[in-house]
Amino acid sequence: MASLEIHGVNCHYADIGRGTPVLLVHAATNHGGQWDQVRAAMGGGYRYLLPDLFNSGNTGPWPLARALNFDDEADIVLALMHAVGEPVHLAGHSYGGAVALRAAVRAGVSGAVASLCLIEPGGCPLLAAAGRRDDYDEYVGVMDDFLGALDRGEPVTAWRDFLNYYRGSPDAWDSLNPDTQNKILAKSESQRQVYAAQMSNPTTLEELGTLDTAALIITGGKSTAPERGVCEVLLQYLPNAVRHTIAGAGHPMPATHAGEVAAALSRHIKESSPAP
Q1: pTM tops 0.90, yes or no
Q2: Rounded to an integer, what distance in angstroms lies between the CA atom of residue 32 and that of residue 53?
Q3: CATH homologous superfamily of domain 2-124+202-272?
Q4: For the chain, which terminus, N or C, has the lower number of CB atoms within 10 Å?
């Protein structure tokens, strides 16, 4: 893997294939390998750029005393975009979707982002700003329950309730093999940083209105109300956004519905690319 030094940390990324650059930003508790099934379904003709965010994959932990935020994570994405040296099609899922959105906002009208695809990105403060208080309160309640269980020394309870909620199944946690469970449990403390970043997300409704990049918003028909709510806010405030719903999918759709995600993303990239 290659790496870029960001905030004193070697931030690793994979650079796979040749063709149209596609930069894919992973969800929390995951790493760049999250996209393997989507890449396989999309096939060749693309140069896939897969960064590991802080505390993830081969990238080390956030090194500074202050709290990690989305601008810090976006610094990785923006540095990688700069290293590529040509416009990229930028996509992100969940936490990574919020990071991708932040990077796109900061890139502005530079032309560095050829298109944007957000798969149920994080955006809790946007819910409150847009007046979707029920969705906001539901998200915060799930977060508070998770952190409360960690504070009581019950990480398994924290993750079981969290994953069962987001995956819409009472058996989501118990269906994981022990190795996967242990890897997730090892993320417990860094998940506190994830939540802090979510709640301090600096992206505003006004900034969304300035982002004219062609944007595809992918949501699942079985996702939670807050996840769908964030997508509704983006569709309302992004000037050039369209929706794609995967009817049978919940939040972890890059894993559970990789082919459908790949088809929608590939189509969006082609529609957003200039004619030869």
Answers
A1: yes
A2: 8
A3: Alpha/Beta hydrolase fold, catalytic domain (3.40.50.1820)
A4: C
